[in-house]
Specification:
Blueprint (H helix, E strand, L loop, with lengths): L4 H10 L3 H34 L2 H8 L5 H19 L1 H14 L7 H33 L3 H24 L6 E3 L4 H12 L7 E4 L10 E4 L6 E5 H5 L3 H16 L2 H30 L12 H37 L3 H11 L9 H7 L5 H14 L10
Parallel strand pairs: 2-4
Antiparallel strand pairs: 1-2, 3-4
Length: about 400
């Protein structure tokens, strides 16, 4: 009988069962609404800061400080205080809801502790970055937004370089994949791709999430491929090889540099729009600050969160393109379409595998699981095994 990719795809997705599919759909739709409510929360926070004149009061207290220190402290104060104000929302969206859907088993205390580390890092690095933005506004005049792309490229590259060394070890324990059949297979894959096998790690991703995940992080000598212990414990050897092939695809195809270029270009556009729209939005919030005044930082941050929300479909389209290319790399180099398909189906537990076209375009950073499994099955149909198994 001739192999039918459509029927095989349907069989893979249907194997989840109606209850699991319904749960995945509910979780996904709720997550999509969260991105909208996140903008609403940002607006409420901005309103509180402006109406209570929190940064105005702090600016008065810091009047004798130098401009750079004052700017840094105003930005840091907003980022720290806003994180505290939005803690109930973050607790609901980042822990309670994830726990309710079985996506995490992380104790609340550990979640709060790691959240505190995240807030400290984002406050420090965020305040430094925006101090740089305000410096550009002061020094570069009306065309300051043009230079923001360069600053964004530097900041993103620095974070990509330092994250595997400084940031990620604060949240997870990274170790070489233990000796055995899995490590032997991954060493072969890495060497065939020209990657140092020492750059393939496993990490205790189960600490935060029950999701089946793997990732590529870092650049240059800090670059590495990391596979969650959830994936290693809950996958067959072929599934691990197929997923690792996907991650190696990201590495070999240089997708990290695409991220740097795209986000730097997007920063120029977003800051250009912020420069043009800031006066109107500031008036809407009853703020008398101008864009170069750090007292108006809450308004600037709201604008950026609003722009990021509307830019999400563009970023998701680019991400889906990279993910499809990484899938194709895995199929071409590892040639385990069924293993890749079965591994992808595991991710359908937390991502509706059958979204409509509009939903996928707007909200999905990865192609739908159905679309990805179909691509794997079409590859299988076009590349049948040289020695098919004998009939039983």
């Amino acid at each position: 009988m001739r192999f039918d990719p459509a029927a095989a795809t349907k069989a893979y997705i249907d194997a989840l069962g109606p209850e699991a599919l319904e749960k995945a759909t509910s979780y996904t739709v709720g997550s999509e609404w969260q991105s909208f409510w996140g903008v609403v929360v940002a607006a409420i926070v901005t309103m509180l800061f402006v109406r209570l004149r929190i940064l105005d009061r702090l600016d008065t207290r810091l009047a004798r400080r130098g401009w750079a220190l004052r700017t840094f402290l105003l930005c840091a104060a907003f980022m720290l205080l806003s994180a505290i104000i939005t803690l109930p929302w973050d607790l609901y969206s980042g822990w309670w809801r994830e726990t309710a859907y079985g996506r995490t088993s992380q104790p609340l205390g550990d979640w709060l502790g790691q959240g505190a580390i995240g807030i400290a890092l984002s406050t420090l690095f965020g305040a430094l970055f925006f101090m740089g933005i305000y410096t550009l506004i002061r020094r570069a005049g009306k065309r300051w937004w043009i230079w923001s792309g360069g600053l964004a490229a530097f900041a993103i590259s620095a974070m990509l370089l330092l994250s595997p060394i400084v940031v990620e070890p604060l949240f997870n324990d990274y170790k070489p994949v233990p000796a055995g059949a899995v490590r032997d297979a991954l060493v072969v894959q890495a060497r065939e791709a020209g990657i140092d096998p020492g750059r393939i790690y496993m990490f205790d991703g189960s600490r935060q999430s029950n999701n089946f995940t793997a990732n590529v992080s870092g650049i240059g000598h800090s670059a590495r491929i990391a596979i969650s212990d959830v994936a290693l414990k809950g996958a067959s050897l072929d599934e691990v090889k197929a997923v690792t092939g996907h991650e190696i695809g990201h590495y070999v195809l240089g997708h990290v540099w695409i991220i740097v270029i795209v986000f730097s270009s997007l920063a120029v556009l977003l800051f250009f729009l912020a420069d043009r729209l800031f006066p109107r939005i500031a008036r809407a919030f009853s703020s008398d600050a101008v864009i170069g005044d750090p007292r108006g930082f809450p308004v600037l941050m709201f604008l950026l969160s609003l722009f990021a929300f509307f830019a999400q479909p563009v970023l998701n389209t680019l991400s889906r393109t990279d993910e499809s290319a990484a899938d194709a790399y895995s199929l071409k180099t590892v040639n385990l379409p069924d293993a890749l398909a079965s591994a992808l189906v595991k991710t359908a537990e937390y991502r509706n595998p059958r979204p409509n076209a509009v939903e996928e375009f707007l909200f999905y950073s990865h192609p739908s699981v159905e679309r990805r499994v179909r691509a794997a099955m079409e590859w299988k149909a076009a590349h049948p095994p040289a020695n098919p198994p004998a009939p039983q």
